[in-house]
Amino acid sequence: MSYPYITDVVNAVFGTHWDLPIPTFGIIVAIAVVCATSVATRVIKGYEELGRLPPRSHTIVSDMAIVATLAGIVGARVFDILDHADRFLADPISMVLARAGFSIYGGLCFGIVAGVIFVKRRSVPVIPMLDATAPSIMLGYGIGRLGCQIAGDGDWGLATNMSLKPDWLPEWLWAQTYDGNIAGVVITPPGVYPTPIYEMAIALAIFLVLWLLRFHKHRPGYLFSAFLLLAGFERILIEKIRINVRYDVLGAYVTQAEAISLLLIIAGLAGILATLRAHRIWTKIIVSVGVLSALAACAPR
């Protein structure tokens, strides 16, 4: 069952009949921003004590979060439009104002770019700030996926194959029909893979890894590179069971998210190797292995 509006949740729990247009996804995104801001502030204060960031760098976090969130909302819509250009050309107003169909990768890309520009204008070192905010970005991503799951915004997966379900796994973790979803799509039983749940779980696991590494004696850029690498692999794997538009890129049929994930993996590997001062030949070998692994993940399902 999906709950597009907060009052849907309240009505289901308390048996009321309220009807207020307060989107569940929007509220959960707001919670994600608050949580991410709190975590980022805490890590940045630690970086200030270690001398990795100038004193009082944490004072810009709230403003940076607002800028990144607003840019992220725009990016999420832009990337969705790029994925469905035919629908946009047919009815642009309807698609721009649609309640569903936001691309979380678009939000992530636009949000990070806007955050970097904001930080540079405040004369704060960008690379250490990216490291400090990496865990919070992953935390916000995970919480945001919870919003996708509850609202049923169309980010679910392919039709499930019940014959492959492990006996020990609850059915709701393998197949859901998202009744009453905000996208207005009717899904026939047994349902589709609840990929937002899988992404939320993986994202929170990655957040924990980054959190444990936050004060590691790495060179500037290491933690953010690790974020790029792990986030790229997470999404490129989950795309194997998600429904998305696929494009022919030199004979390989990939989704927009898979293409972006490939770039993240390459950037993450390059960043980690650069910060570890790896020997040039090993850098080439490991980057090549990473690229080949990513291309294999992009192979047809």
Keywords:
301 residues, mainly alpha, 2 domains, 11 helices, 3% strand
- Could you tell me how far the N terminus lies from the C terminus, measured between alpha carbons in angstroms? 28 Å
The radius of gyration over CA amounts to 20 Å
- The total beta strand count reads 2
Q: What is the percent of helical residues? A: 55-70%
Overall tally of domains: 2
Structure description:
The chain has 301 residues and is an all-alpha fold. It folds into two domains: 6-208, no CATH class; 218-301, no CATH class. 62% of the residues lie in helices and 3% in strands. The chain contains eleven helices and two strands, in the order αααααααααββαα. The protein has helices spanning 6-14, 24-50, 61-83, 85-90, 92-96, 104-121, 126-151, 195-212, 222-238, 256-275, 280-297, and strands at residues 246-249, 252-255. The protein has a two-stranded antiparallel ribbon with strand order 1-2. Helix 9 packs antiparallel against helix 10. The longest helix is centred in the N-terminal third of the chain and has 27 residues, at 24-50. The mean pLDDT is 87.
Short description:
The protein has 301 residues and is mostly helical. It has eleven helices and two strands, in the order αααααααααββαα.
Break the fold down into its secondary structure elements and pairings.
Layout: H1 6-14, H2 24-50, H3 61-83, H4 85-90, H5 92-96, H6 104-121, H7 126-151, H8 195-212, H9 222-238, E1 246-249, E2 252-255, H10 256-275, H11 280-297
Antiparallel strand pairs: 1-2
Helix pairs in contact: 2-3, 2-7, 3-6, 6-7, 7-8, 7-9, 8-9, 9-10, 10-11
